[in-house]
Design brief:
mainly beta; Immunoglobulin-like; 6% helix
Length: 296
């Protein structure tokens, strides 16, 4: 009897020990990468005329080893892709407001340049985050692109002119012939307007200056170009050294490319001046050259 009781106690004790051992805890499954906030700057993207605009997409992720993104017009078109091949950098404090869950949030930054060739309307951002274990998360958002005509003021002042001028040879022997030559040029266009010799016309000129008299009012990156100004009168004057009076010597007419020249005898040292008198639509121009005359 005692033997049977003792055996039962041992069995109960053993059973109690077995029942008292806790089962191993089951590990929580890895949720994989999580994509948080996706921001687009600027939004909307406003493209003015021929300008280009940089679009920056910032993606906050958690548990991602690699992040890639692309943008594409919602109406169809080839996606503009970019990929982050480096580990996602740490996100500075304060960038994410009230991050959900636990763990370190990271940030990836992507950028594209859009211009007048990219369609207006809704665009989509598609983001893919891949974890170290191969798990993938996808998310996205949209933003808008607008095109705005870049308007330039209609010119109110005359076009600028340039006058190149040379008296040669220098020095010159007294009594020898002196050649006076040069070229008159006029600005081809400024702003978006071009000149057709009678009126300002919209012709697609870009990156040019607008001039009001001799003052550059607008600067869009430099003159579009210069061309010879033909069939224009250029007056030639001479002022001997020591004198204050200009003497009119001749008036010449420019060729269709704007060139002019004539010959005069050289008698005294002094300064030669070429003068173009403009009109309502074209500015004045003047140029000088000093020539020394020797006797022997």
């Amino acid at each position: 009897m005692l033997k049977r009781i003792a055996t039962g106690l041992v069995a109960a004790a053993v059973g109690g020990t077995v029942l008292g051992v806790a089962a191993p805890a089951t590990a929580s499954p890895d949720p994989g990468p999580v994509i948080g906030n996706i921001s687009v700057n600027p939004d909307p993207v406003v493209i003015r005329g021929w300008d280009s605009v940089q679009v920056v997409v910032t993606v906050n992720t958690r548990g991602a080893d690699r992040v890639s993104a692309d943008i594409s017009p919602a109406g169809g078109g080839t996606p503009l892709s970019t990929k982050s091949d480096d580990p996602v950098p740490d996100l500075p404090r304060g960038v994410v407001e009230k991050p959900t869950g636990h763990g370190d949030w990271k940030r990836s930054v992507f950028s594209w340049t859009l211009d007048r060739n990219d369609p207006a309307g809704r665009w989509n951002v598609n983001v893919t985050a891949r974890g170290a274990d191969g798990k993938v998360a996808n998310d996205g958002r949209s933003f808008y692109v607008k095109h705005v005509s870049k308007r330039y003021p209609h010119p109110t002042g005359p076009r600028e002119t340039k006058l190149s001028f040379d008296a040669s040879p220098e020095p010159v022997k007294k009594g020898s012939w002196l050649k006076l030559a040069g070229r008159l040029t006029v600005s081809d266009c400024y702003g978006r307007y071009g000149w057709d010799d009678s009126a300002w016309e919209w012709d697609g000129c870009r990156d040019d200056d607008y001039v009001d008299g001799n003052v550059h009012v607008y600067n869009f990156g430099g003159w579009h170009g210069w061309r010879g100004y033909g069939n224009q009168d250029v007056a030639l004057f001479f002022k001997p050294d020591g004198s204050h009076r200009w003497q009119h010597v001749d008036t010449v007419t420019t060729s269709w490319k704007g060139y002019f020249q004539t010959k005069v005898p050289a008698w005294k040292s002094g300064t030669w001046k070429a003068v173009y008198k403009g009109h309502r639509w074209v500015d004045d121009a003047v140029a000088y050259d000093h020539v020394k005359v020797y006797r022997h």
